[in-house]
Amino acid sequence: MNTLPDFCSPVPLDKAYRLLNHGPTVLVSSAHAGEHNVMAAAWSMPLDFQPPKVTVAIDKATRTRALVDGSGWFALNIPARTLAQATLGVGTDSARTMPDKLQRHGIHTFAPPDSDVPLVQGCVGWLLCKVLPEPHNQQTYDLFIGEVTHAWADSRVFNNGHWEFDKAPDDLRTLHYVAGGQFFVIGEGMKVGE
Amino acid sequence: MNTLPDFCSPVPLDKAYRLLNHGPTVLVSSAHAGEHNVMAAAWSMPLDFQPPKVTVAIDKATRTRALVDGSGWFALNIPARTLAQATLGVGTDSARTMPDKLQRHGIHTFAPPDSDVPLVQGCVGWLLCKVLPEPHNQQTYDLFIGEVTHAWADSRVFNNGHWEFDKAPDDLRTLHYVAGGQFFVIGEGMKVGE
């Protein structure tokens, strides 16, 4: 289905970096030649404002790597607290050895308009990215640079370019992974004057 | 002074990535030819486990960029909540136009053993990094890759490779910047089983 969920609102591209700026753990989704997959990645960051760029590390051992290499596209999906168990699951298990890992871990996807890259339901932000080919980075460091072509956010928690975690249901707080199944959720806001 | 504060404990290099894994905003410190500086950066991430590597974006317009280009070294300092105002200050003002910006914003530094790179007092984690020269990344994307040679953490909040935000004083929670003076502090922990 190429329709967006009701609460999924477009984010202007010049504000897209704000979805990642506070350092959430992401789910990397991709599709190629009829196959799609999702993996977890704690290693991503914004790299530019406009046009927005991001970096993400995608290990050669992952099935996602083959799909990104094949298609030249990926999406960064920002999971919220209710997806903690699923995020750990798709970060631990590989589609190489567990072909039905998405079903097993309860990951459901939807398709954005005019794209084959699946987006993950239950996330609070989504960045659709086209790979800017940098073969040396990709080969030496597993480091990918993507240009963000579209971005969306859950309007219950991100509005007018700002996360509103303190006003939204706690279940919509983003996840920040450390190791060994240990996450932290994002906490309270602090506004500081210049 | 080349002595570490009492609570500043070495972190084994194979656990150093965990200091950054949850996506905190960092302070980038550097020194060259008798000058030192500190700037804020929300755009950094781990890039490898062992030897640990990191990426960080350092804009050409910053004074820090000249010091990193000159010395080949930088440190990523992880500020805690009490440094929010100072972090915004050194991220907003440039030493190019405000040479005393560190004093104005109350940033105090100390030196680690056998290094000229200043570390920022009041932070809860520190990663000393040697630039792995990648001229194309640096020139095209302002993207630096560093190998972590030493890491330390505040033992009141990071122990045995784990952040203990829920046990430590709230003032030691890390900062996660969005935009316009808006930070979030890291929130509560969630342990998820595989």
From TrEMBL, chains A, B:
Enzyme class, spelled out: oxidoreductase
The enzyme's E.C. designation: 1.5.1.-
Cofactors (names): FMN
GO molecular function: oxidoreductase activity
Every Flavin reductase like domain range: 18-160
UniProt keywords, alphabetically: Flavoprotein, Oxidoreductase
One Pfam family in the UniProt entry: Flavin_Reduct
Family per record: Belongs to the flavoredoxin family.
Protein's recorded name: Flavin reductase family protein
UniProt organism field: Rhodoferax potami
UniProt lineage: Bacteria, Pseudomonadati, Pseudomonadota, Betaproteobacteria, Burkholderiales
